[in-house]
Structures are given as structure tokens and as C-alpha cells.
């Protein structure tokens, strides 16, 4: 009996850690999404678009287009878009750098991101893809994507650390993002980006946050994309110290430590009565989805615990 108990105590922790903290990815049977270990790069490849007539021609156009990114003389800003080839085999690409990043670092991010896409998406004939890096986003498609609002695929990345006071943290987070979103949507055709921090009362914590839209979006579409992303926090990331909501047309991020360039930082003074409107920050009737492997491990763990009770 003693050996059985020891065996259970040995197996149970292994079962519980077999399902490590991982990004929450929106369901899409036509795409696959992967991240590097520290989520410095996350990419999603898809075969959702079936309009191309000759895959080899499209692939040639796309490879030529993406391969030209690192040396293209037209890339003189943080936003770049280009098309190559004739429809329906046209390769369309957009690259957006984070608004606070120096141009030379943007070009490095574009180069590294394109390399990952060429290895993981174009090599398997995926027709459209996106990669979210820490400093930039690169995407391509067979159809025109310039100025088009696209909110899928969506990727949620959250910190494993919980806020010390989730209620106060969330009361600050929502108005902080709304303030930054107003600044970002007021941007121009080159940059729609805002960064800043706000103080959490009582706990003396600081929330650092950024929001950004692809600058080819008009003001209304940018606002819509960011508003939806802010509401998505309730689905994935309530009560944690940091998270990212990543979409093709916009993204947002918040952390308890600075993660952007100091020159972009601004103290956001929020209204004193931050707690009066908190209903939008609290989860209500949220359904949690459990994958089959996770469910199996959960059931097996409970069975082992029950067996232990009778030993």
C-alpha cells in the first residue's frame, strides 16, 4: 500500500504539468498557429483562400515578394505594403513595425519574420499567413488586404502571474486601453500607435500598455478592431499581470513592467472615480473550453485521487 501511494504522488504531478501554459488560439480548422518558446514570434498559416489557379505561380510571386523585404529600398518607414503578379496569383504583403521601434530594428524584425514565414508557411504552399513578432507584424495573402479590417486569426497570450488585486487592476486596465485607443485611431497613414502607463491605486502597481492598428485602416475600422480586442481581454486574460491580444489588423498588450521604448512612454492620468464603471471588466457567463487531451488528464487525475482515498 505504501508503494502505491508513492506511485500516485509521483504520477499525479506529471499529469498536471503535461498541459503547460500555452497560448489560447481561436478555433480555425483551416489554419495552424505556432509560437517560439518565449512567444517572441507567433505565426499562423492558412489555406482558407482557394481562389488561385496555379499554386506554383503564386508561390513564385510570393517568394520573390517576401525575399525582397530585407533589401527593398522602398522600405523607409515602419509601414510597408506591396503586391506582385497578376490576379488570381497575386502575392500581397503588408509589414507593420511597432510605432516606437527604430527603423533599423524594424528592418531586422521584417527580415527575421520573413525568414520564419518562408520556412514554415510558403514551403508548405499555405496561401495566406501572418507572423506576430515583438517588434513587427508581417502578413501575406492571395487577395488584397490593404485597408481591409481582418480580425481572424486571433491569438491570446497571457502571463502566468496573477495581479495582486485583480479588481483594482481591471478597473485601471479598461480606461487605460480606451485612452490609448483614442490616441492610436487619431494617427495617420504611416502610424496608428500609442503607448503609456497608469498607476493602480492602493497596490502601487503600474500597468504599461500599447495599442496599434495597421495604419492602412481608416479611423472607424481601427477603433472597431481595438474595441473588440479590449473586450476580448474578458475572454482570455482577466486578473493576470500581462497579456497580448493579436489580430491581423490590430493588437494590444499590457504588462507590469516596461516593454517598449522609453521615449514612447506617457503617464495616463485616469479619472479619479475609476471604480464606478467596472461591470465591463468582470467576466460573466464565460464558457471555458477544455481540449480532449486536457480533459483526459483531468479525469485520470481525479481517478487516481479517488483510488488514493481507498488505499
Automatic annotation (TrEMBL):
It holds the Pfam family Stress-antifung. It comes from the Eukaryota. Residues 39-145, 151-259 form the Gnk2-homologous domain. The keyword Zinc does not apply. Keywords: Repeat, Signal. PROSITE patterns: GNK2 (PS51473). CDD domains: Gnk2-like. Residues 1-26 form the signal peptide. InterPro entries: GNK2, GNK2_sf. This is Gnk2-homologous domain-containing protein. The lineage of its organism: Eukaryota, Viridiplantae, Streptophyta, Embryophyta, Tracheophyta.
